[in-house]
Amino acid sequence: MSIILISDLHLDPREPQKARILGLIREKMGKNCSELYILGDFFETWIGDDEKNELITETITELQAWRSQGTEIYFMPGNRDFLLGQAFGQKAGFLILPDPYKTEFYGHPVLLSHGDALCIDDTAYQAWRQKVHQPWLQKLFLALPLWLRRFIAQKMRAKSRRYTQTADPLQMDLNTAEVLSWLQKAKVDTLIHGHTHRPGYHLYYQDHQAFTRITLSDWHDRAHGLIWEKDGRHYLWDLE
Ligand SMILES: [Mn+2]
How many domains does the chain have? Predict the structure, then answer.
């Protein structure tokens, strides 16, 4: 048996076939997968659980297929789909996790996060993040008609695209001191996250202890994730 972690699929209604890649992975390794973790930015945008389109319907069907094979599904919101709520979680059959979330994989404690909250060097982004996470503002946004929410989301996405093109990529990465502080506070040695689309293993040594940060990739050209085996081995994989 194993645990699969994925993130940053950025599922988009303009490419409904993307949800089918999840189906290919399920056929390949779903039977041996006891838990599937989706660590944020599952959807390119999320404007409320009342939105309906072909992609959302296909995704619900796909996640139900994982569940009927015996896989428990956990979802942690990212910076694109932080408005995804319990109503959709219930429909799709997954549990919504807080960020960060401490759990154990076969007895090994791990800390899970989308990762954006750790990018503290990007002060402009953090200011925006703080603003959009205010409950009153979210409530106000969700009360708007769908067409208006779609329009606002489109504007915000264009603005964010312009920002990412000009901002310093190093500044947009996770802050190491902050990562180590989170790990030490949670008393774990391993962090698994997405967000930066820069997959890899990062090893740190501090206070006579080793720490690992595992970064998942996005699904821009291929499916990607982390497998955590029952015997404790873990590795990143790609499916072309
Ligand atoms: Mn992200």
Answer: 1
Q: Which ranges of the chain would DSSP assign to H, the alpha helix?
A: 18-29, 54-68, 86-92, 123-132, 135-142, 146-166, 176-186
Q: How far is the CA of 207 from the centre of ligand 1 (A)?
A: 30
Residue 133 amino acid letter? H
CB within 8 Å of 110: residues ≥ 6 apart:
102, 103, 104, 188, 190, 191, 192
Q: Which residue segment(s) compose the domain that 90 sits in? A: 2-239
Mean pLDDT of 31-36: 95
Yes or no: say if 74 and 63 are a contact pair by the CB < 8 Å rule: no
| pLDDT of amino acid 164 | 84
**pLDDT the model gives residue 172:** 87
pLDDT at 240: 65
Q: Residue 40 Cα, ligand 1 centroid: separation in angstroms?
A: 7
**Tokens describing residue 6:** 């994925």
Question: Which CATH number belongs to the domain containing residue 181 in this structure?
Answer: 3.60.21.10
